[in-house]
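Please predict the structure of the following assembly.
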Amino acid sequence: MRRQQNNIFANIDWFLVLLFFSLVIFGWINIYAASSTNSDGSILNFSTRYGKQLIFIILTIPLIILILFLNSKFYEQFSSLLYLFSILLLAGVLVFGKKINGATSWYNFGGIGLQPSEFAKAFTALALAKLMSDRQYNLKLIKNQIKAFVIIFLPGFFIALQPDMGSVLIYFSFFFVLNREGLTLRYFTLGVTTIVLFLLTVYFGTTWVLVSSLVLITIIILYISYKNKQFIRFNWPIVLATYVALILFIAGVGYAYTNILKQHQKDRFDVLVGKIEDNSGIGYNTYQSEQTIKSGGFLGKGFLQGDRTQGNFVPEQDTDYIFSTVSEEWGFMGSSLVIILFMVLLYRIIYLSEKQTNKFSRIYGYGLVSILFFHVVVNIGMVIGLLPTIGIPLPFFSYGGSSLWGFTLLLFIFIRLDAHKKYDY
Amino acid sequence: MKRNFLLVFLVTLVGLIYVGRLFYLQVIIGGNKNPINSATVKIEYDYPERGYIYDRNNKLVVANQISYDVMIVPKEVKTLDTLEFCSLLKISKEKFLTKIRKFKNPKKYPPWLPDVFIKQVAKEDFAYLQEKLHKFDGFFIQKKIIRNYPMKSSANILGYLGEVNEREAKKSHYYSNRDLIGRWGVEKYYEKDLRGVKGRKHFKRDNLNRITGTYKDGKFDTLAVSGKDLMLTIDSDLQKYGELLMTGKRGGIVAIEPSSGEILALVTAPSYDPNLMVGRKRSANSVKLFGDSINNPTYDRGLQGAYSPGSPFKIINGLIGLQEGVIDKNTSVYCYGGYQYGKRKHEFMKCHCGIYGRPIKLKTAIAKSCNSYFSETYRKIINKPNNTKIGFENWSNQVKSFGLGNFLGYDLPVGQKGLVPNTKFYDDRYNFGWRATTNISNAIGQGEILTTPIQLANATAAIANKGFYYTPHIVKKIDNQTINNEKFITKRNTSIEAKHFPEVIEAMHEVFKTGTGKYSQIKGIDICGKTGTVENFTRINGEKIQLKDHSILIAFAPKDNPKIAMAVFVENGGYGSTIAAPITSLMIEKYLTNAISRKNIEERMINLSLQNEYDKLILKKDSIAPTTE
């Protein structure tokens, strides 16, 4: 304890710090490429996007020092307060916020925009860790499960009102935390089945999916009954419920898809499942992104040599589509390196979380890794054309101060907690 | 501890899937196959001057003129003031709308590719257009070089320029859609020399098609290289004179300089003014000219017309006879108004030599064109080795050594092989044994054998040279350098030794002194030649109908140190002596003396029209190409 106060950098995991800076710096190089189309040469031109991003990056250093300066107990003790503070900010933005691109997500302080949803993730992770690290807490109890769900989805509720559906989705990633702490896979299986059935219904139409899934489930039940003669006799309510749920869900999805979803929402799914091929309308982003990635080839075209990047062919290329810049200018080598860097980062956090003796730190670590994983999967999946267009940033890479600081906050709180554990015997 | 594997597993799984997807996108189907991507790089072309073409006396035959096309880039076209635009381009609103609609079809017209909107605007409108057109997005003016043919003749030699179509452009590394390219004649054959290399400038462009600077600092830019000038072997005065003489007739005249193989004149009739294939009327005229199946003005009869050679072929048979030793200059044959080649009564070939029952020697036989003499000679050649097949194959090869029966390899893009039958040809045709008498008509050039006028002219040059020829060619110099193409400077020997020629040449001289050509002799010039009258037939509903004979003649002059060898072919012209002979002698006189002493003959020939004959032909049959026999 004494030594720690003398040196705030004592025992911190330098490997994570190194990964952080590698990603941030490589990210900035690509933001420079993507936003310096009329390259005027000056790096320190602060009216440009890359200039601003450089300031944001420099400002992470005082932020990091502040985070490391605070005692790890501080985060545990003040987690509820910080959580409440972020809920207030999220509620407040709906009233005082500035509407940009149809969503009220931004506070505007004299020209500087702040996005509270980017910081809320970290505080939600702290709050969840606080709740679940309590000795009295037993996740088996439905009551406790509901408490956790409230903490997770309260920010999601306010973000949904902005509305910023991409950021709402992030909160589903906390499932991994619950799972780690003992929640069964049942929810997960249910969720995945739901999504798969939904996509199949959109693609093949209600009738086909309904008929074939009913046939499939019947075969499974017949098989189980054949193995276990008593199965139907004892489990008939569940079997019945399964049939009813299946019919209701598929029919409901079919109905919702044709009657409730708006056209632009439908289009996103249609483009994703390949039902419509559209290279100029809604599919333009994905099409351009894929063309850009393809043109990069194995070794890439080189820094500032990506003619599709330089020609602004991909929209939002320094924010959500920054990965296409990496792919074009650095080729397969660069793009797969970024994926590997992220994988290493995630493995490292999982490894460190598992080593935490303090339950709070462990749960927080899992919150962090879940959020990062979800961001990376959704963002890169979108850019490489495997997932629908959901606008969330690539951690440490995408242009934007709030996003960068939000992730810095998330990561370095963990680094602080991790550094502390070594004295916690 | 078990549960943490879910995330580890998912991180690994997703990581592998994503890297795999990137590998598929970037390495398997992606990559830099063509670094210059049409979406991000705009290429501007600088078209060089196409090479000029001169005749052998340095007279300008083909020149250039500048033309301005209004181009469209369909993708960039924005809403515009139709009225102003139409009045600027001097087109009607309807025409504008149809054109715009046409370019709206992205399957046929890729939206980012420039295409011609209005072809060749008037020169006087250019400056004004240039100033105003920038107001209209998606339109610009492209300078192009088009041709100008001051000589107004020789369309078959010069050819014309056409446009590269999209299919060709896709296959080509050089041409873009709608570029000009040589389509016929010298323009086609020497396309690469004439066109030069167009310059390319590359510009970066962004998603809104704005130019954002030069691409890679001009690393891929190239400068235009001017086309090379050509000097033809053609004597344009002789060529024009030949075309004049062929007025109202169908056929071809080919004149070759024997000592070099240079083509002095290559006349086909009917022809057309090459300027018809230039400019805005080009496509309309092209449809007219190529659609004219009656006159066939785009068919080069000098190169593509395969006819029976008729009597001039007797010369070659005589030479082969001498070479094989089956005859000598004193060998005599008796003619009784024809030649009985078989036992049956109908196996008899008539002869019009008019020397009844007296011995006929080679010289007389050629001068009087005796069928009997050459039938006998032919039979002796074939039967010499006591094996028809070996004898015939030998004869066939010797005929081919004169450049007959195959493409000559001249530097023009069209031609015909003609036909010199070999043993296999008759084996396939007759399932019974055949003998020299089966195809005895070959003796007098009326059998299966077919030749084109240029082949005959070349064979004549070989006779004039006493046994060798140079492959005929039409280009003398490229970029002021005399051509050194092996093909055209290699001496090609016939199978006949030089010693056999003088007797034959004497006989050919006799033709113009006392024989069938005597009315066409010129004082002071020793012409050697041989007339021919070729029977020809056509079939209507399987019925064989005889048409008026083709008039034919081969000749060279002067007898010593020959300067010109030619073949003249006039379809349905009748006797060789009445049309082909005077035309030949006028051409020779024109070329050798550059003056015409016999104005009356000249006038008669120019005014002689065979149109009546050709009109009868249309009435008689529905197909145009005569099957000669």
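Chain B touches chain A at residues 1, 3-4, 6-8, 10-12, 14-15, 17-19, 21-23, 25-27, 29-32, 37, 39-41, 204-208, 212, 215-216 (CB under 8 Å). The CA atoms of residues 310 and 445 of chain B lie 4 Å apart.
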